[in-house]
Amino acid sequence: MASQIMGSRNWIAVASAEHVRIGRAGGFMQVCHGKAAPLRRIRPGDRVAYYSPSEVFRGKDKLQQFTAIGTVREGVPYQFDMGGGFVPFRRDVDWLKAEEAPIQPLLDVLDFTGGTRNWGYQLRFGLFEVSGHDLDRIAGAMKAALPA
């Protein structure tokens, strides 16, 4: 597994798998219903993995999988008109070839879950920083080759 890039940070973003797949296909990410502030915390070269609690937005299914992983490209957050008056902020991401992977087998080995019952609490924030160790473990589960 790759080690953390010097000076880069590691993030978990949260969105439905349906929305993540749209972003993966378009080479971008959006978080927190299109808000700019969370995306301003992320820098080029940072690594990000998406966790999808469900298949569709507000879905009742429990997908609970990591659905994308990549590295943030150069640039800053920008707005994109999706029509219907929705103009969310985005960041460009180089998404890696990866398999979707369930979180359940990783709960005891990830720092942010630490084997606790309340492991999902941080996911409510939509975007949070994690250790390089965690992102490396997630990349391994997704069979993704993070850049060294």
UniProtKB/TrEMBL annotation:
Database matches in InterPro entries: EVE_domain (IPR002740), PUA-like_sf (IPR015947), UPF0310 (IPR022996)
CDD domains: EVE-like (cd21132)
Domain EVE: 10-139
Protein family per UniProt: Belongs to the UPF0310 family.
Name of the molecule in the record: UPF0310 protein J2851_005811
